């Protein structure tokens, strides 16, 4: 099974995070992560904590360095509108209610 980066398409024979031990399931370096039942995770995935350890040790980057950059969009300038203060209208007639 090979692993493919969703951003740039780079492939690896083993998941890069398997270069460190997993703090969740205690899988050793080079071994796949396992569930509490002892079965391996689907599709050769690894626990998030293992990926974080790989990022923290510099074996895996947090973002793909080869990922295409999103297009630059201009930022909008927010203009605050000032509404004029309007005094309440005084009634021109006075009604008497019975």
From TrEMBL:
Residues 15-54 form the DNA-binding phage zinc finger domain. The lineage of its organism: Bacteria, Pseudomonadati, Bacteroidota, Cytophagia, Cytophagales. This is DNA-binding phage zinc finger domain-containing protein. It comes from the Bacteria. InterPro entries: Phage_Znf_bind_put.
